[in-house]
Amino acid sequence: MPTTITMPQLGETVTEGTVAQWLKNVGDRVEKYEAFVEISTDKVTAEVPSPISGTIRELIAKEGDTVPTGAPIAVIEEASVAGAASPAPAPGNASADSRAPEKTTLSANGLSSVGSSKSAFEEPPVRVSPAVRRLAREHDLNPALLHGTGTGGRITADDVLAATHAEPPKPTTARPPSSAVKPSPTAPVPGQTLQISHARRIIAQRMVESKHTAPHAWTTTEVDVTSAWTWREREKERFRRDQGLPLTLFPFFLRAVVETLREFPLMNARYTEEGIVVHRDVHLGIAVALYDNLIVPVIRNADTLSIGGLAVAAGRLIERARANKLSPDDLMGGTFTVNNTGANGSILSAPIIYSGQAGIITMESIVKRPVVLEGDSIAIRSMMNVCLSIDHRLIDGAIASSFLASVRKRLTSMGPDGSL
């Protein structure tokens, strides 16, 4: 039976996707759960598994086409009937052979078939990320039968591994992103007109929307991070040896920010016409710049993590972002955003607020320079600017200045003999 495959919904707020690359051609065999197409949104590029085994009969959407969620993109002939002769219709059921192809809709959390009462994997009662679902498939496990230990009963990778008593899989080399959505990193030619990617169009729309919707206000402060820098220098080699990740000042900054967000809950809120929604949890977005994209993966419940925990969480997200391996769940639910603009040498920034949040904060370059201390002595100190943009509809200057002063105080008091 021919089955029409439709555009999956890669995230709760995503309404369309772009066919980045077909991994199979017409006439190719595809196995159930084998990736057969790469879909790109403004947030993430993901390989989509086939819901059935069979043969590709038609590729409805072309590479580069942007298709609404639920619209048909391909037709697959199921293996059980591919190439077989059609059976004669049963008496009194002449319409059985003339019915339309079954329509299968993929989603970020699994698949559901319209007109079919069977499914290989029953949909679990809680959401499962694509990465965890893929891991469950690799171990031939039904996620619906697993006990979730994550937030809200969410099924995690550790839950899958615990059920199989297996060791965590070894990391593999990421496949390069499709050239259909990620252009070659060559310098633009003067006089050239560059094609605007789907991701860039969405970024442009959201930046304009944020600036037009939220009245931006901006402020900055200077922070002496000498003690924190000394602490980081003392710990960096051990941390790299134990975690396999570099230790920068970024997680120290993240810890100061999340502690201060708990002190100023209005900064961890969003403005709506019905009222100001103050979030219970601190889900920290971290801006990551890619060659042709800007994405903001989220560290969930960031206020519950130590400096070392934040370093690992941020480091893993950044690694996956650069390897094009983020899942839709990695990009959802941020309540406040942090950007390390200083990594590129910036000393002052006026960042645009991520839509739906109260503010965005940046850490700038760390510069050693002479500073006048108490008692009029002069010393060489490691100094860093911190910049904050706020939505002036819900945050006033007094709160913004107090928030920055608290971040500065926490950073200044860090180290040099603390514990990560």
Description of the molecule:
With 420 residues, the protein is an alpha+beta fold. It contains 7 helices and 20 strands. The strands form 5 sheets. The chain has a 6-stranded mixed β-sheet with strand order 3-6-8-1-9-10, with no helix packed on it. The chain has a 6-stranded mixed β-sheet with strand order 11-20-19-18-14-17, with helices on one face. A 4-stranded antiparallel β-sheet has the order 5-4-2-7, with no helix packed on it. A hairpin with a 4-residue loop joins strand 4 (35-40) and strand 5. The longest helix has 18 residues, at 226-243. Residues 81-101, 107-125 and 166-184 have low confidence and may be disordered.
Which structural class best describes the helix and strand composition?
alpha+beta
Strand order of the largest sheet: 3-6-8-1-9-10
Number of helices: 7
The percent range for helix content is: 10-25%
Euclidean distance between termini CA atoms: 58 Å
Largest sheet: 6 strands, mixed
Outline type: globular
Strand content bin? 25-35%
Low-confidence residue ranges: 81-101, 107-125, 166-184
What is the average per-residue confidence, as pLDDT, rounded to a whole number?
A: 81
Q: Please identify the oligomeric state.
A: single chain
Output the radius of gyration: 25 Å
Q: Top keywords for this entry?
A:
7 helices; six-stranded mixed beta sheet; alpha+beta
